[in-house]
Automatic annotation (TrEMBL), chain A:
CDD domains named among the record's database cross-references: TM_PBP1_branched-chain-AA_like
Protein name: ABC transporter permease
Membrane disposition: Multi-pass membrane protein
Location in or out of the cell: Cell membrane
A GO MF term: transmembrane transporter activity
Keywords: Cell membrane, Membrane, Transmembrane, Transmembrane helix
InterPro entries with a match to the protein in the record: ABC_transp_permease
GO cellular component entries: plasma membrane
Acetylation as UniProt keyword: no
Transmembrane parts of this sequence: 12-29, 58-78, 85-104, 124-143, 164-190, 202-221, 228-247, 259-278
Signal peptide region: none
UniProtKB/TrEMBL annotation, chain B:
Keyword Transferase appears in the UniProt entry: no
InterPro entries assigned: AAA+_ATPase (IPR003593), ABC_transporter-like_ATP-bd (IPR003439), ABC_transporter-like_CS (IPR017871), ABC_transporter_ATP-bind (IPR050166), P-loop_NTPase (IPR027417)
Name of the protein in question: ABC transporter ATP-binding protein
Gene Ontology MF term list: ATP binding; ATP hydrolysis activity
Gene3D superfamilies for this protein: P-loop containing nucleotide triphosphate hydrolases
Protein's organism: Paenibacillus soyae
Amino acid sequence: MMTSMIGAVESGLLYALMALGVYITFRILDFPDLTVDGSFTTGAAIGTVMTIAGSPPWLAVVYAFIGGGLAGMCTGLLHTKGKINGLLSGIIMMIALYSINLRILGKPVVSLRGEANLFESVSVLVIGIGLVIAVMIALVLFFKTDMGLSLRATGDNNRMIRSFGANTDTTTILGVSLSNALVACSGALIAFSQNSANNTMGIGMIVVGLASVIIGEAIFGSKSILRAVIAVVLGAIIYRIIYALALRVPWLDAQDMKLITAVIIIGALVVPTIRRAVKQKSMAKKRTEDVLASLTTGRNGGAR
Amino acid sequence: MLKIENVSKLFNPGTLDEKIALLGANLILKPGDFVTVIGSNGAGKSTLMNIISGVMKPDAGKVYIENQDVSQISEFERSRWIGRVFQDPMAGTAPRMTIEENLAIAYKRGKPRGFSFGVSGKTRAIFRNELSRLGIGLENRMGAKVGLLSGGERQALSLLMATFTRPQILLLDEHTAALDPARAELVTTLTETIVREMNLTTLMVTHNMEQAIRLGNRLIMMDKGKIILQVNEDRKKDLTVEQLLGEFEQISGKKMADDRVVLG
């Protein structure tokens, strides 16, 4: 039990980078980017293949970061310059990357056994915590810079930011690139922790990312960028813990996890809406009674 | 300062819904001019604003800003010269960002946006000072999200954001039309003060006839994509709403048809 919990926290930290990437597109840019399913594997493939080719693992992660960024840039270009619907741009790139990833890997499954590994001298926990904290600080600071502000405004009110002279095409491409770079980075780290990369490891990743963002925000709130970023990281860890717990349920299987994820997301999206509606209704009812009560007392008072 | 030369714009060209939005419109604004624009529905007022700001490109004709042909320059590049306030109070500000972050974005109008912090001690002092000029207490709420402000407050903030970097041209597109009378009056007064103090070259579309006469030094009237009447400073002083409506009927041969017109 304990070891599986530690394992969940460890992989949660590595997946947190992917969740942060999804947060950038989904929440900040308001751009539902499905490239993630492809770029996660791209990162894993680049990380694995580069390591086998002899480059130090940390450098392989940097290459994965760059590769993911390029994939995101393509999606951004399709959407902004090609004027293709955002969802569709992501789907197109996801499909294209499926072939590209196979090309990079050379075969569907590539093992890292016997090769150098990022985690051979330092534990996953240490690297995970260090990297996640560094990325969180970098993101929070970035979103306070002039460029970061214009990126946030692009997702918030792009007409407004254009009228102040920012090129929203550029900010969108930048945001989607940054997002997929983080996703690919996460993919490479997961490959190192699993000692292998395979061509299907990214499937459903966007949903996992969304689940992390939504769970995190629902529990910890998203009032400021700092708070939201922390929430997303914790959301990713909590998701992995739920995953680990679900796997311990006897009649549930690893393959049921995608369904469980979908149910978690639906719950996280629907419950707050229902709760808000109920709250508003009871408030309206109470206020109406108050107003009616004050009216009747007023009239009675006049009669006496 | 601003010259519009023979500008035409068609919507849905070549289809059954083809509509002439602007037809050979000419207009010159001298530095410091404050021109109010009135006209009936579909006269081309908003199209004129969109052509000047670069949201739309003219099908024929040219737009010059400071003697430079900007007809084919995109909207975001033109914003170096142009400050703009939209009719919709939600349109000019980013709701999920704070007041000071919005001002930081406006502060960088037309300048490259790099990796320095948008809100620093120095810029915050500037923003506080500018906000206090609005006189509605926003300087004490600089960390509040703009989405929490009322429509009037947001429009006052939009006006400040559009003007405090001294754009060469200020475009006001019915920026008080969506506000209740008291808020509209506040924003109108602020507009008057800011334009006068900063001596901004301004083009303002309005549905309020009385406001169109009271504000600014020149007035133009549009109909069917053309500028049909230009009133200069001397004549504008003594103009009344009745005269203006009479003038419109005389030139266009019909009554002013505007479902939102306010006679004042």
